Structures are given as C-alpha cells and as structure tokens.
Amino acid sequence: MPTEKFMNLGDYKKQAILDAMHTEFMTTPYSEIRISSLIKRAGISRASFYLYFESKDDLFACMMRQRRERLEQGLVEAFREKKGTFHESMELLVERIMTDESYRDCWEFCRRMLEDETCREVAVRTEAEFGGRRLREKSEKECFEAMDRTGYGELNEERLRCAIEMGLLVIIRISMLQLDQAADPRELKNMAYQQFAILDRGIRD
Description:
Keywords: DNA-binding. With 205 residues, the chain is mainly alpha-helical. The chain is 80% helix and 0% strand.
C-alpha cells in the first residue's frame, strides 16, 4: 500500500498520480504499463514514485482500494438514508449508480480489470493484502445496524451479508450492460428491482 509520504501529499497531487495510473490502465495492457510512462503522465520523478510506492502493483492496489471504498460508502449511505427495508436501500443505490457519473469510473475500471488476465491476478492478490474482505464486512455490519429489521424475523448479519453480496452481483451486471448501452436504463432498473424484491422476501422468511 502507499507509504506515509504519499498519504501526506495534498489531495490534488495524490489524485493526479492516481489519475495517471487510471489513464495508463484504461489504454494499455497491464503487463505493458511501465513506471516511466506513469511518472511522465503524473509529472513526478522516478525517485518520487518509489518514495510513494514499492511498485506498479502497489500503485494499482491504491487505485483499486479507492474505487472499492467509493462503492462501499455508497452502499452504507443508501442503508442509512432509507433506514428501512433491504430492497428500498438497494433500489436507492441502483438509482444513484445509474445517474451519478462518479460511479461510472468504478464500473469502467471493473470491466477493464475483468478483461485483463494479468490485472485480474494482481487484483486477487492485492485484495487480500489491503483487507478487502474486512472492508466489505465492516460496511455490511453498518448496513445491518442502520436497517429497520421490523418484519425480518430472525435476520442476522450473516443472512444480510449474503443478500447484499447477491444484490451487488446484480448491480455489477446491470452496470456492465449500462456501459455497453445494451438495454434501456428503465428496463435495467426494473430488472434489478425484481431481483432485490426476491432477495428481500428470502431474508424475511
């Protein structure tokens, strides 16, 4: 993960470096990305790069975590704002994901990562290194605490976690379809809402 020196940089400079990696990542196969091209885009020296990161993979992990945290934050915000049912919270998240451009970068990144075999291997390794599972569990716990569980019987954190993970798979699918403009957005929303309603009934039993 990034060094303390990187974390102490101003937000503008940090983002400029991450944006440079994003541009390279979206246009160049991961195995062909070179530190020389990254530092040129970011406007920093090679020495500075290695003060901030151990390697290209380290920088990628930082970029990956930033997007992961954005999605996790959106999930928790939806549950806190609705303070109600599972399907209402997930529907709000879908609405925001499909209309807020800040999420588009997350899905473009995700699709690119899935398409690049080398990148997938790095992603799996770095997910464990930066505690991606712990990050998800923390956000799911916060969703459970924010939710109005009236009418959900014996719902516990584990059952809600499974429902959220299945719901996020639905969201990933419709987001990929939206990027490809493969269906009308209203149809995609309705498809997601139907799946959320099924999941909601499942965790009420």
